[in-house]
């Protein structure tokens, strides 16, 4: 059975992609799935005795409980807290998609599920011509959009999901109730459920690190894995 890869993007940076990714990884592990979290590109890394490290990549690594070397989990790590292509320019480095594809192929061979966390949002540039969206579309990965529930999220969520559906397969979306909780949270969620042409997998309550209905989230992930692995 071939591995399933799920790409997680967000309506912006800091909306809870890592929280959702880690929650999905833990749910998969509880079901006996061999799962790996992957952060292909990270900016804003900190210098440590072991080299550059990013909190999100380390969180994915802990959630999966694997012994993978950090460099495999986060192949491109940059110190400047700027967009990936700009950070690469500062470091006089090119983000090579062929290298990312090679590493992903190895992870997909070793694991049954690969949870990929993007950098920033869906249309973030990775190079002069490359974008996150274009790369994911080339790979044919299903996409889960994380919506940070705050003022402006309706516009950001609808624009992001519309763009995803034009380029890739929108598997669903999840809401992360940021702190402090936005006014009329339930009403905003209702608008998104009505207007986004894909199912809401679940909601992460404000200040929490787990989803409110883990059974429903696991059911959505299980259906996605079955759909991908049986695809002709």
Task: Describe this entry's structure for a reader.
The model has no long low-confidence stretch (mean pLDDT 93). By secondary structure, the protein is of the alpha/beta class. The chain contains nine helices and ten strands. It has one domain (4-229): Rossmann fold. The strands form three sheets. The chain has a six-stranded parallel β-sheet, with helices on both faces. Strands 3-6 form a two-stranded parallel sheet. It has a two-stranded antiparallel ribbon with strand order 4-5. α1 runs parallel beside α2.
Write a short abstract of this structure:
This protein has 232 residues and is an alpha/beta fold.
Topology:
Elements: E1 4-10, H1 17-30, E2 35-38, E3 41-42, E4 46-48, E5 51-53, H2 55-64, H3 70-73, E6 76-77, H4 84-90, H5 97-110, E7 113-121, H6 132-139, E8 142-148, H7 153-167, E9 169-176, H8 185-195, E10 200-204, H9 214-229
Parallel strand pairs: 1-7, 1-8, 2-7, 3-6, 8-9, 9-10
Antiparallel strand pairs: 4-5
Helix pairs in contact: 1-2
């Amino acid at each position: 059975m071939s591995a399933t890869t799920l790409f997680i993007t967000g309506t912006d940076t800091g909306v809870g992609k890592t929280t959702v990714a880690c929650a999905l990884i833990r749910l998969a592990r509880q079901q006996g799935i061999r799962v790996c979290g992957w952060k292909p590109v990270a900016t804003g890394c900190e210098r440590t005795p072991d080299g550059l490290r990013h909190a999100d990549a380390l969180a994915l690594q802990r959630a999966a409980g694997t012994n993978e070397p950090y460099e495999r989990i986060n192949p491109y790590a940059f110190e400047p807290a700027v967009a990936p292509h700009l950070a690469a320019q500062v470091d006089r480095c090119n983000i090579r998609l062929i290298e990312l594809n090679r590493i992903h192929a190895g992870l997909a061979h070793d694991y049954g599920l690969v949870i990929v966390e993007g950098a920033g949002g869906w249309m973030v540039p990775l190079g002069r011509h490359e974008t996150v969206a274009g790369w994911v579309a080339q790979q044919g990965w299903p996409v889960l959009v994380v919506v940070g529930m705050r003022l402006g999220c309706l516009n950001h969520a609808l624009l992001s999901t519309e763009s995803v559906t034009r380029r890739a397969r929108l598997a669903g979306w999840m809401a992360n109730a940021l702190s402090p909780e936005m006014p009329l949270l339930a009403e905003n969620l209702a608008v998104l459920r009505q207007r986004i042409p894909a199912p809401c997998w679940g909601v992460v309550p404000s200040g929490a690190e787990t989803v409110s209905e883990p059974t429903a989230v696991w059911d959505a992930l299980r259906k996605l894995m079955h759909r991908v692995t049986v695809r002709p």
